[in-house]
Amino acid sequence: MILLSFDIEEFDMPFEYGKDISFDDQIQLSIAGSHSILDILQKHQVKATFFSTATFAIHAPEIIERIKTEGHELASHTYYHSNFEVSHLKESKDKLEELSGMTVTGFRMPRMMPVDEKEVAKAGYVYNSSINPTYLPGRYNNLHISRTYYTKDNVLQIPASVSPLVRFPLFWLSFHNLPLGLYSRIAKWTYKKDKYLNIYFHPWEFTDLDDFERFGFPGYVRKNTGVKMENRLDQFISNMKKSKLPFGTFQEFVKGIVTPDRF
């Protein structure tokens, strides 16, 4: 199946580019983008997984409610987007379950950073999707890691999808910058080879990021954001559905891999 996921979080990325942004703006921009995402998914009757920080969930109850009532999965993106301690693994899971009344079984580390799998298991997670198995200068050097799912320290690892052979990453930046037809062909090739596709986005991509003075983003980050991004995701889902490729949540996917008693 196609695993669409969205990392819903405090939008603190402008800090990486030397720009200041208030906490309220961080939350409100992510709330607006999350509503856009949920509207598109609802239009196509597609279910997805939302990796939320506990902090975002606390300040965006209407988004958590939509995720629950519209049949999506809620997973952990730790407690804060830019401040991590090992204790946050369990604390974020507990808080998300308290706020939503849903069972949280999945985890993703912000910025796909490394995390101790033994601690992930101790916190009670079934799966971890914190690996981009490619090489990206200054960010990832994971060519030695399996492209497809595997188990480590009793936690199922579900890396982000990269193409066969050259390991071209199919993450959010390539979705913005490649012609959509080319991206879709690579995605279908990867799906045919791996029998699934794991691609992820963020809610702030669905807001207009063209204001360089406000956000400081280079062209390859702000390209095709806002309404353009809404249209691209809408077209991508339509294209995949026309090819009869099914969509699902990580929990649905994992249930076919691990034993039922883990849920």
Question: Could you please describe the fold and organization of this structure?
Answer:
Helix content is 41%, strand content 14%. The protein is α/β, with parallel strands linked by helices and 263 residues long. The two termini are 20 Å apart.
Can you tag this structure with a few keywords?
263 residues, alpha/beta
Task: List strands and helices in order, with pairings.
Layout: E1 2-8, H1 23-44, E2 49-52, H2 54-59, H3 61-69, E3 73-76, H4 87-100, E4 106-107, H5 117-122, E5 127-128, E6 135-136, E7 140-141, E8 150-152, E9 155-157, H6 172-177, H7 180-194, E10 197-201, H8 212-215, H9 219-222, H10 227-242, E11 247-248, H11 250-255
Parallel strand pairs: 1-2, 1-10, 1-11, 2-3, 4-5, 5-9
Antiparallel strand pairs: 6-7, 8-9
Helix pairs in contact: 1-10
What can be said about this structure in brief?
With 263 residues, this protein is of the alpha/beta class.
Please provide the count of β strands.
Answer: 11
Largest sheet, if any? Answer: 5 strands, parallel
Q: What's the end-to-end separation, in Å?
A: 20 Å
Give me the number of helical elements: 11
Low-pLDDT residue spans:
none
- Spatial shape: globular
Please trace the helix and strand order, writing H or E for each element.
EHEHHEHEHEEEEEHHEHHHEH
Rg for CA atoms = 17 Å
Mean pLDDT: 95
> How much of the sequence is in beta strands?
5-15%
Helix proportion range: 40-55%
Kindly name the structural category. Answer: alpha/beta
